[in-house]
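Q: Could you fold this chain for me?
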Amino acid sequence: MANFLDPAILFFLFGAFAGAVKSNLEIPPQIARFLSLYLLMALGLKGGFALHKSGFTTEIALSLGLAIFLAILIPIIGYQILRTKLNTFDAAAVAATYGSVSAVTFITATQ
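A: Sure. Below is the predicted structure, expressed as structure tokens.
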């Protein structure tokens, strides 16, 4: 039950609910920027505390190394593929988005 009180989970659930009921909810850009920074800091702190608690092992170092490698490799491959279909700016934006998401997904899956 405590997991449902995590801010990241609550934002996701409330966002999904607002979309499901076709709400005209609009978040001002300044608040959206603050929320993005808050979520990044909250996830980073939570990960840092968990890493401190578990200790830095060889398995964790390998997982982090692979995640960094994927965070670099996937955007490069994605950009090369996407620039044949999109303009340079859009190809770079989409590739960077999928690269960062895949790295976070990889880290989450290994944990």
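A (continued): The chain has a mean pLDDT of 80.
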